[in-house]
Amino acid sequence: MQRLIRRYxxxxxxxxxQKAYVSLGDLAGFIREGDEIRVIESPSGDDVTARTLTNIxxxxxxxxxxxxxxxxxxxVIRWGGKVVTMTVDQVEQQFDRLARASVDRLKPVREARxxxxxxxxxxxSLETALEKMTxxxxxxxxxxxxxxxx
Length: 150
What we know:
Layout: E1 2-7, E2 13-15, E3 20-22, H1 24-32, E4 36-41, H2 49-62, H3 70-79, H4 82-141, H5 144-149
Parallel strand pairs: 1-4
Antiparallel strand pairs: 1-2, 2-3
Helix pairs in contact: 1-2
């Protein structure tokens, strides 16, 4: 969900959804909860979202949080928006490698599972044969011919 925030000349931020003034901390909370924000300068209508997001990062650092590493911030300055695209591409590549490695690891597991299923069938077959032999043996013990011999 995208929240529309109006920024007034006195630097106050107004959430048009809640119909209330909000702080940079409130905006950070909205973002952490999954919302996207769009900040419009009032009355000019200029989009100041990037500037506001930067202010949120600065405010977080002032309060003792360090949401982004220095090296990441250097890269953002160096490459601008390209760094995010590059980072996403790198994450996708890493995920693809991880997924392939996981599938490769699962192949032996799948083969082992098939072998285990075959062994279980054999064990069941042996158990059935043993039960039949036991029943046969007991029926021989209880047969009338056995009683006559004794």
